[in-house]
Fold this sequence. Notes:
This protein is of the alpha+beta class.
Amino acid sequence: MDACLERALAARAPVLCLHTAAFMTAAVAMYEAMGFRRAPSFDFEIPAGGGAPPVGIIAYRLDLPHDNGHA
């Protein structure tokens, strides 16, 4: 995640977004500790197969800081 964040900052991206699943509790905790916040409008479900219920995929976003064009 640190490498992804570094690349996004170097590219001057305004936001870094990702998807995960609620059952991935360690990942969710890491993202939230890094400052990511939920973006529920980008959530979706995928079929699990075998008659199992669909898996909820949840979205997170991190607004990235920039120096507003100062060199």
